[in-house]
Amino acid sequence: MNNTLIDYEKTKNLVFTPDQDYYNDIFHQHATSGYTEAIHLAQERVSDFLKNNRKPFSGIRPEEMKSKVENIDLDTPLPDYESLFNEVDELYVNHATAYHLPEYIAHLNCPVVIPALAAEVLISAINSSQDTYDQSAGGTFIERKLIDWTSEQIGYSDKADGIFTAGGSQSNLMGLLLARDYFSLEFQKWNIKLDGLPPDASKFRIFVSDKAHFSNHKNAWILGLGEQAIVHVGVDSRYRMDPKQLEKAILEEKAKGNIPIAITATAGTTDFGNVDPLTEIARIASRNNLWLHVDAAYGCGLLLTEKYRYLLNGIELADSVTIDYHKSFFQPISSSAFIVKNKLHLNIIKHHADYLNPKEQNYDALPAQINKSIIQSTRRFDALKLWFTLRYMGKKKLGQYTETIIAMASETADLLEADKDFELLTDSDLGVLVFRYKPSGWQGDCCKMNLHIKTKLFFSGEVLVASTKVNGIFYLKFTILNPLTTIAHIHTILSIIKKHGNEYIFS
Ligand SMILES: *Cc1c(COP(=O)(O)O)cnc(C)c1O
């Protein structure tokens, strides 16, 4: 009888010897040396990435990159970490886009702060999942406190709540989902969650500016309303939503028999970095009983500045807000949040599963963040990165980074405006400048020439800029999101742009 029982004392002291190859690669109590070796080697490669990179991009062509990756035989593992890291250097690290260099001035990718990278080490190794208290413990409360802190920065009361999400597109989806379901419940006594879309759902209308993020369109489609539900409102000379045109558009849609349900205002447009007039838009939303969602994916950094916080005045009037910490709080991807002014609205999302968050459970006593999540059940503890950042650096320093960036963008705008060979469309509340090289007196095709400049820069890897089209015209775009960018960098970048432009003209 006795020898069939497990000897617990013996199993506790079980030692896995190194030749027990089977256990070596699992993260467990006897694997600390293997763990330390792998992480140490990874750190060395990251340090080399910082030390050796002088250009934001190697310039490698997709066909070469593709064949390097395609040639790997995934069924034959490598003999050791050293050869693994060497291979990954070739396939990835040596060619990765380096966001931390000031010559990277293209998209909304920020350099990241170091305390957040330290947090990542804990997040991925301990691997908590944020759905329920029994899977995350302290993680649940750390996330909740950061949501409360963010709500406070917005100017919300303690009635607010929210959740960390994978990104701004997902947060925007949550905003429109709540807008749609709230409208139906409140004004049509129709429960979309239970009964699906109401018969007149194809008449629902959502108002966004011409410069709003494309996720609004995709989200309208995902929500079953179709992209046709999106009404484009005209913009002013700085490409911000024009409140007069908004009012007019709402009246027009009503006259057509359509049903306005929501407005998405953008606080920091992707193309121009300008903030829609939030207070006036909020007034219009309230007069028309429309849900107001503010997409502050980019502009959220203004929350932390003393000097420019006023640009977000009125954000506290929104029903919901999108925050991308991975855009303007210098956090590694992913780190984002969706915040609602009235936490009761989040009840729309709740769905009970007996094995995870049963209906009869008291969620004040035993909380479950999954009740607020739309599409993620298992969810990373991304909140810890922001926690490390705030506890180590503080809010003020992050705010100063944003102030430095805004000052640099404004100096750059002055430079572009003073140079008769550049055409700048407008200045920016944040750090985006849309412009083109247009040498005075030259009569050629400016769109082709600027496209040539962009392509040349990309495949030389020396400077990475973005581009966009405005009224069918091709423009170059700077997104300054690095507090280390100086006016000397900008001078150099502009002279390289001119060099490639002139080569095109005189070739
Ligand atoms: C980047 C951006 C988004 C999308 O955010 P992701 O985190 O990339 O999903 C939404 N809105 C605006 C204004 C953005 O700039």
From TrEMBL:
This is Decarboxylase. InterPro entries: Aromatic_deC, PyrdxlP-dep_de-COase, PyrdxlP-dep_Trfase, PyrdxlP-dep_Trfase_major, PyrdxlP-dep_Trfase_small. GO terms for molecular function: carboxy-lyase activity; pyridoxal phosphate binding. The modification N6-(pyridoxal phosphate)lysine is found at residue 327. Belongs to the group II decarboxylase family. GO terms for biological process: amino acid metabolic process; carboxylic acid metabolic process. Pfam families: Pyridoxal_deC. One of its GO terms (cellular component) is cytoplasm. Keywords: Decarboxylase, Lyase, Pyridoxal phosphate. It comes from Flavobacterium cheongpyeongense. The keyword RNA-binding does not apply. Its cofactor is pyridoxal 5'-phosphate.
